[in-house]
Amino acid sequence: MPTDPYTWLEESLATIHRADWYRSVQTIHGLPGATVVLSEQQVINFASNDYLGLAGDERLIAAAITAIKEFGTGSTGSRLLSGHRELHRELEEAIASTKQTEDSLVFSSGYLANLGTIAALVGKRDLILSDQYNHSSLKNGAILSGAAILEYPHCDIAELKTQLSQQRQNYRRCLILTDSVFSMDGDLCPLPELLDLADAFNCMLLVDEAHATGVLGKTGAGCVEHFGCTGRQLIQIGTLSKALGSLGGYVAGSSTLIDFLRNRAPSWIYTTGLSPADTAAALAAIKIVQQEPQRRVQLWRNIDYLKKLIQQHLPNLKLLPSESPILCFQLHSTTDALKAGKQLRDAGIFAPAIRPPTVPTSRIRISVMATHQTAHLEKLVAVLNSNIATTVS
Ligand SMILES: *Cc1c(COP(=O)(O)O)cnc(C)c1O
C-alpha cells in the first residue's frame, strides 16, 4: 500500500501536461470590453461571451450599486427561506415577458439551472436523449438525474428518430436535451424538427439558450424566436452571464413547470438566492436588449463582415459551420492550436485555443461582439493571414 493517498494527484497532473491538456487562469485587468488588458498587454478581445458589450455598461453598473445600497450584498438565504426579494420576481417576470412564456425561475448560474431542472424532471425509470456536443451542464444534469442516457450524433435527426422508435416505449418519461447555439462550435440545433419529434414520441424537450439569448431572434429572445417556435411547449434554459452581462441562470416555460421546479429542483431550493447586484444588473440588461435592438443589429453586421473578410483573405481557413457570433477554425493537433493561440496573443489578439476534453478536435474559437470596431476585425484577419495561415492549411 502507498503511504500517501494524494500522490496520484501529481501523477495525474503530469499526464495532463504530457497531453498538452494543461490549463490555467489568465488575469484580465480593468473593465470588460472589446479590448482588454491581459497580463499587462492590451489585446483585442475575441474570447468574451459579452456579445452585446453590456458587462461594462454604466447602466448595469449603476443598477448593481443601487441594489447593493438598498438590499445589501448578499441575499442571506435560499429563496424559499429568507433569500427572496421583490427584485427576483421583477427579473423573472421580465425574462418570461421576453421569452413569451407564462413564467420563469432564476437560478444562481446557468449550470445550476440545468443540473436542477434535469434532475427534477426525470429519474430512474426515464430516458434522456442528448446531443453529443451538448454543454457539460446538460451532460452532468443527465447523470445526476439517474435516467438512462443515450447520446445521438450531433444534430442527427434521423438517428434520433431511430433511437426513439427503438427505445421510447421502454421508459416512462423521455427528455430530449440540446444546446440551441452549440457553445464550442457556433452552429444551431434543428429546433423545428426536434419539436416535431418530441411531439410525435411524447417527449419533453429542453433547449439551452445560453449563447442565443440577446443574440438571436427579432427581439433577442433566442433561437426559439429565430425559428418562429415561440409559444410551443418546451423548456428553455439560459444564462444571465453571457449577452446579459451579469451572473445567474434561468428556466422559462409554463407556470406549472416553474411551480414544480420551485418545489423539486435541488440546485434552486438548497442554494442562496441570486445576489441583489447580479439580479439588478440582469434586469437592467434585459431592458437594454428590449430598447436597443441596434446593438444586436451591429453584432450581426460585425459577424457578417468578419465572415466576408475571412472568405476573401483566408480562403484556406476551415471555418466550422456557424450561425452565431462563435466562429471556430480547426487545427490538426493540440500543439498546433496552442501555437496558434500564442501567435495570436503575441500579435495582440486574444482568441483562445479550445482543446480536448472540452471538444473532440482542437480549434481556435473567436467570439464576435457588437462593440468590436471594423479595425478590430480587420486586424484579426491581418494577423491570421501573416501568422497562422500556414499552420491551418
Ligand atoms: C455557459 C453555458 C452554461 C452555463 O451558464 P453559467 O451561467 O455560466 O453557469 C450552460 N449552458 C451552455 C450551453 C453554456 O454555454
Q: How would you briefly describe this protein structure?
A:
By secondary structure, this protein is an alpha/beta fold.
Structure, described:
- It catalyses: 6-carboxyhexanoyl-[ACP] + L-alanine + H(+) = (8S)-8-amino-7-oxononanoate + holo-[ACP] + CO2.
- It comes from Komarekiella delphini-convector SJRDD-AB1.
- Residues 42-383 form the Aminotransferase class I/classII large domain.
- The protein has 393 residues and is of the alpha/beta class.
- It has 2 domains: 22-51 and 293-391, Aspartate Aminotransferase, domain 1 (Alpha-Beta Complex); 58-291, Aspartate Aminotransferase, domain 2.
- It is 43% helix and 16% strand.
- It contains 14 helices and 14 strands.
- The strands form 3 sheets. The chain has a 7-stranded mixed beta sheet with strand order 4-10-9-8-7-5-6, sandwiched between helices.
- A hairpin with a 5-residue loop joins strand 1 (28-29) and strand 2 (35-38).
- Helix 2 packs antiparallel against helix 11, helix 3 (86-99) packs parallel to helix 11 and helix 4 packs parallel to helix 5.
- The radius of gyration is 22 Å and the shape is globular.
- It binds pyridoxal-5'-phosphate.
